[in-house]
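REQUEST ID: PR-0412
SUBMITTED BY: lab tech R.K.
PRIORITY: routine
TASK: structure prediction, single protein chain
INPUT:
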Amino acid sequence: MNDVMLADWITVLLRVLAIAVAAAVAIWLGRRVLRISVRRLLEREEHDESLGVLPQRELQRRVATIETLTTRVATAVIGIIAVLMILQTLGIEIGAAIAGLGVVGIAVGLGAQTLVKDWLSGIFVVLENQYSRGDVVSVAGVTGSVEDFSLRRTTLRDLSGTVHTVPNGAIVVASNLTRVWARVNLDVSVGYDTDIERATAVIDRIGAEMLADETWSERMIEAPGVVRVDALGDSGVTLKVLGQVRAAEQWAVAGELRKRILATFAREGIEIPFPHRVMISRSVGSGPGEPAAEAGRRDATDTNDAGAIVAD
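STATUS: complete
OUTPUT:
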């Protein structure tokens, strides 16, 4: 009898050992597969020009984040399955344990829906390389530079210095303003009496001079120039000026371009239109015994805007 019980216990221990070994092998294989998959992801990002040139350290950080997260999840799942199998092998009823895990899972799922949503969104941000630290992005109605990023939230600092913490689950559309290259997009207005061809040539020349300038050539990819007449406004003609620049340089290049256009237009005699207001005051006339000058003053005082003609 004792020999039979001993044999049964040996059989049980062997089964437990086999389950533990199988779980360990599964975890090891899972890590290997995940590591290879992540390495391929790294190689794809390094050779995909559409994703831009990112620092190697940044790519390694993204890869490490995904590898750690997926490895932990896979290890937890395999570990739970192995423990349940071992309990069943030892003759312990696992139905109640599974039911308890189900109840706990439902409770955690209901209570942590937002947190899980944030994590999943963060995973996709990392996998798809939507943005990284230092990029200027617009997410969830907030625009600023990415100061920090985790799987749960993105921290932005806007132009006024305010820090915004945005949960990743709240990000529906992520607009990256500094990915690979950017574009100068200016509207330049000139008066209706201006020679449009001449104004276009002047703006194109300014763009070419900036591209040839050593100070700005490293920031620019192509010279800004007029691409079309964009609008016929109330007081002038609007010319659309576009130019391709390095990422995050569009604001500096646009500011320098405006300054040069303003100075050159002043030298070339090209007018930048602005609203004109002309006020004409008229005198109604003097009454009996009232001097004309006094009547004029009374009319200018009493009628005020009623006696003025305003032209914009």
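NOTES: Residues 10 and 16 are 10 Å apart (CA to CA).
REVIEWED BY: pending
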